[in-house]
Amino acid sequence: MSPDACRDLLEEAFRAAVAAAMPDNILAPHLPPRPQGRLIVIGVGKAAASMAQAVEAHYGDHVEGAVITRYGHALPTHSIDVLTAGHPVPDTAGEVATERLLGLLAGLGEDDLVLILLSGGGSTLLTAPDGITLEQKADLTQSLLRCGADIHEMNCVRKHLSRVKGGRLAVAAHPARVLTLVISDVVGDDLSVIASGPTVADPTTFGNALDVLDRYGLVAPEARRRFVQGIRGELPETLKPGDSLFDNCETKLVATNQLSLEAAANRFAAAGVRAHILSAGVTGEARVAGGVHAAIARQVLTRGQPFRPPCALLSGGETTVRVRGCGRGGRNGEFALGLALDLPPCAPTFALAADSDGIDGSEGNAGAWVTPDLFRTVPRDRARRLLEDNDSYTLFEEADHLLFTGPTHTNVNDLRFVLMLDS
Fold this sequence. Notes:
Helix content: 25-40%
């Protein structure tokens, strides 16, 4: 297989994985009949606009509502308004848009149905700070991102600083029936974590949130004060399992990382390449995860264990990056560079690590390629220095190894494919 054919196959597998999570392909079977009363559609996340389009295609223009998505991720709609706001740090536009969604839920009755469309990014975009200001919440979000907190930890904190997360959006919709359709970007597909679980019970507590701040040495005095008040019982907790309010709420997963990995594996199989899904739940430091994948690849290449080449290793999930330097690049770039540095020189290995939403962190690329000739452009010693500065973007940019897709309008987290050929 030629180098160009290898890169083409990896990109085709990525696009097959993304297609498996596209709302226009998956949403319709989960949409209910129209209710006797009003049908209100609200949504948040990077897939919110494409989910709104799929809802309109199913029901026609006889729906009303609004959704919030990230800047640059809007799509044209007819009767469902698409609002945009900042991500990954909340901003004023998100706060204003959230108030718009809450206004749509006011005064609903038992015959009405609220269809809620959730996808990754919703925790930031759905912004209604409680006990702290928007500026303070933005600063705390930045700190959590930089210290390497995972999504479970971040959302535990955010749920306890919000008027809409941790089941509280379901309170705003009561007594209407609530159906929430979810595209999961969370390892383990925990419904209480995806978009901070605005319509499901929350098992975490104010004490858990304070533990997160202590774990990472974060000061955040206003948040700490609120968490201590909550621990003392001076503030109401998020809604907990068993609350009768959820008797009128239903939540369905419609797309996951696992389903997308299976679609990618089918694309490799169609090309005659055996594909093996290692895990849909890879977490931890991105560069370390890259090194672990490189170790497995070395075993395949040198020992034929646990699989014989040619074959592909597939994984998904969400790694983290502890920011030590001041460079550019997201977690998929760090994963790819960690992988490349731990592979034998010129190993017959090609890889692609990319975010399914088309944006790797704060840059415009979806991810990065690894090829046997990567270090012919950038020496390994310089590559290691760039990695220490969290500057994987610069390396892959100089090597012309960045993948650009633009926003995909869905989000099932990271997708990583390692293709090994016979030596």
